[in-house]
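User: ok so my PI wants both of these folded by tonight, can you help

Assistant: No problem, let's get them done. Here's the first:
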Amino acid sequence: MNKSTMQNLRRNARSMAFGSPYAEGLLCFLCFAVVIYALFRLHQPIQEIIAGHDSAYHYLRIDATAENLRNGTLFSGVDYLFLNGAGYASSAAYPDFFLLIPACLRLLGVGIGTTMSVYLLLCDCATYLTMFLCGRACTKSAVGGTIAAVAYTLCQYRMDNIFIRLALGEVQALIFWPLILCGLYDLIFEDFRKPYVLGIGFVGMLLSHVISTVFAFALSVLLAVLFFYRLLRQPKKLLKLLLTAVAVLAVTAFYWIPLLELKGSCDLGLDHPAFYASNYPLEFYNVFRDLYTGADGPSLGIVLFLLCLLRVFLTKRSPAYQAFPMQCASDRSASVRTAADVFALLGVFFAVFTTKLVPWKKLAKYLDFMQFPWRLFGPVSALLVLAGAIYLFYLLSFTKAKKLGLVAAVAAFFLCFLIHMDRLTITRLGVYQDDYFTSQADPTFSIGMSEYLPMAARNDGDAMRARTDVLTLDDTITCSFERNANELHFTTPEGDAKTAEVPYIWYKGYEAVDETGAELPVTMSDHGFVSVELPGGVHEITVTHHATPVRVACNVGSLLAAVALLGLAVLHRFRKPPKPCVLVQDRSSTEAAESVQQPEKQEEQADAPQEAQASSENQSKEEPTC
């Protein structure tokens, strides 16, 4: 075998190994595996508790959801593991739908710390997957999706949310930002053939973090205003968008309608926040810091902005400008480059919006609800990552080195990730026993700033804490009781006591009956607890909490809506394509046509041998003889 043959074989082997689509898929999968493994190593030891700012509350939420599953009080809206059994409307105000996953792990006997670590790893995988799908939808390539997924999963703000703040709601919300951006991209720049992507994004966002849902709605409105005339010329898109919005509201009605009912039932701490966003705007340079500080909060770092600076290499004078071949079928003037430019500009705008360059005091009336301006870093991270990934992908496509560029980009992201995590101090609290929250009272008072307490109970925290395990008659006489989750029994002594303050925080849905089944009036006491009017004399009183009729109706309605949408999706997936229409002529007309065509065919068949013989003779005359 000569030297040239060996070189050809090596060249063919190299092209088969690195030029096939299987190699591209394998490389993308390896990037996913490396990212998840790196995050898994960060969670070691997985059985220990992460000492984040909100750790105690979120660990308690998981165990409270598990107790609700065990006691059958999941849909009541009150968690009875909180406040030493007095109950707290955490699940009614802070959605716990996705906490059913770690709650089931707790019921299976998995430890407290291990449950949280496993759930965070699942969130890592889901975040990677959603951004990969979004990036692939925009670039029409798995390489573009991988670039976006790696950069987003390892971005600085997300790492700070996990290992410093342990803001579980925002960690969950970061899963759905890519789906919302993908849905908005499909709505504005393509044909909106997949409205369910936008719908799933908003459903997941609303069931994860309410403040992030407000951000997502504001971003959608802003994009709709910017491209108003384009959307106005396409009424089918508007109709799909309207139906998607109705579906989202119907599926999530079991959460947002009871939340409105809760807010309207009494004066809650939600209406009196402890933090106002107008008091915490950032210095401009703090947006680009690489280290989390307690005084200034989290930051974005410089990597995402550098990624978007690749846009300067895609100007009209640049030869790489031709690397944007994909035009929208609905509007030829729009392109992926336009979408990336819009996302990048919006990301930079919202990043600057968190600083003191914006008059926050004048906008306090409208923006104080977000508590901290840097909460905007969630959508900013998604916008900048998606725009930068699009720029980088098309630059790599122009250089015809997508795989090598992908490896280099992932290595660069990993380097920045490792530098940030090396400077970050992750504190752990050791291993908690399985009965950590059920065997002692103190940890059950980890409720943050008590936003979901009635103000009557929130005003005096020490008095509230003392009344969670005491039943008093006329605010002076103590009485023994038996309490089991949402049901409490006590017997009134002889005398003419008029009221009994029961050790339950008051929320709508409490009922009291005596031994005969007669209902007793229930109100809120001056201390924010359940107060029962007594009939006088010795009676056996039972106090229970049930889901309100509004909550029951919303639960049923959301379930029916989800089943109906699922059924429509299955029918759409497995329906048979329509058969092509075939024009059927009359038999008489077809016979007449055949009778007319038959003599013509016979004449053609008769002339064919003569023409063939003539052509063969001419050919023989023209051919030279040897």
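One down. Here's the second:
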Amino acid sequence: MRGEEVVAEAALVLEAAQIRRIFVGRQARAAQTSRIGGEGGERDLQNKARSASPEVRVELDRLGETLAERLFPGRVGRYLYWCLGLQEGRRRAGQEAGLRLRICFDREERFAPLAALPWELLCLDGSFLNQDRQTPVVRYLESGRPQPYPLAEGLRVLLVVSAPQDLPALDTDQERGKVREALKQLEGAEIDEYLQPSVQGLRARLLDGEYHIVHFLGHGDFDPSTGEGCLLFETEDRLSQPVDGLLLGSHLQGIPSLRLVILNACWGAVFPRHEGQNPFSGVAAALTLRGMPAVVAMQFPVTDTAAITFSEVLYRRLAALDPVDAAVTEGRLAIYACDPESTEWATPVLFLGVDDGRIFREVAPDAPSVARHRGEEQESLRLEIRCYGERNTADPCLDLRPLFDGPHPRETRFWQAALVPRLREFFDTFLDEIQPLVLHLAAPASLAFLAGALLESWSGLDLQVVEETADGDLVDLAMEPGSPPEGSRWREGAPRVLDATADDVALAVEIGRTLTPDVDRFLESGDVTVGRLVPLAALADQDEDSLTDGGEALRLAQKLSLRIRDREAVERDGTLHLFTAAPAAFSLYLGQLVRDLGRVQLYEPAGEGYRPSLRFPLDPV
């Protein structure tokens, strides 16, 4: 689905208020008297009193049909019906046949209103596609095509129960009991609970044990003014602690066994509705872009009873090795069967990063396990990338020295034509699965940024960078135990307007060394046209001018990506010209977030000026 005309047309389908009336009004009545299990609570923090319209079902049908008309016009619609006919013919012949509808959203911010529409309601000829396991509708986000995980000893689920005392109480006991009851019937299945959770504690649990599913049970929230979604974890004094998708995704990356995250919290799947907001700033979308194979979340308020029913059936089908989209459909049908008047069956949203929906595969019980068992340390993989200096390790090395003259490639064209494919091939050769990685870099900042972009699915928490400077000094910013430090922050200097008619922006990033005057002189030369130059310096609480560990570098990169993403709309349409004086670890972690930065041009110092190096997005392979 591409093109501004599609956005404009789809945005006219329904106003936000009308969609909320359809979904939220019915949930309010269900929260008071639920058919599924008696009294039910509600997980919405934004709406206290609502009324349900008797015309909801008619509006629901009309909405689903209108969405289908916009999505499948003319020849596209005829081809869809041809595919459905072919599928039905195979089913009548006794063949297993399904038609998965993957809705892929463009990452550009002007598509935010399009992504926010409830595509789970697609309706053809009076039938909702998502109520048939043979025609699931999923939101597909490219995330590195993770492979199915071998499931030899049964599902292992970590149930994360967050109940801050400053928020309305949820019926957590019933849902925990239902999940346990469903898993009790499955051979080898285990469930552990994590109460009073923090995001740092969650990371520690995942590192200490092998879990296939993380199930979050609690409250979620969404700020329409910023387009940012969050889950509410707990502080040490049992108060609510907002955790956005970017931070949560960093703490869930790098866990090989983790295939699915279930967010039984309101608004986890919601998309921003306004142009200019990042379409993927919701929690579920952010997790998928960080490499999670599948995320199930709620796009509207959901009652306790509906959430519990959905979870119970979902687990039963996953343990039977159903594709995750088929399992989600069975969960929808369970909600619908218990309360046909409710709209809650359309509330769950599946975000998928795998092509065929299979996140697990069955293996023989006596087959050798590739999993890391509970309490077992996973050996780190050590790799080296060298553009200068002498080798002093026996680790696998990508030797790029023949292409370099000092810190620079012999020819500028080597950046795209030679370095990108060789680095991609190097990682493809040695990285078979996600595991702790120690990367020794004797390379310029642009190559560290490129390495991060190609290692996007790796967690910064499992990726240690050892930097070797051109003088041979080693800078090892190890990831210290615990949470990334919160003390460091960015201090923005006074922007300098260079060309009021230009949309491009230059950003001078300083960590430990000043470079803004040099960048200013370079831009004054007129070789590059930008609208303004923005100086940005890292500032620590202790007034230090350098990083102390890898966690600090990771958190600074995350904060900078949020600043860049929040630029004014006119500037987001231009290119960001990025100049950095920072450790390689920071450049690599920022490269991992390149999808959030828009169009980026990197530069390397050359004498008294700068040379352009890599441009992102990279050219297609």
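The mean pLDDT is 80. The two ends are 22 Å apart (CA to CA). Good luck tonight!
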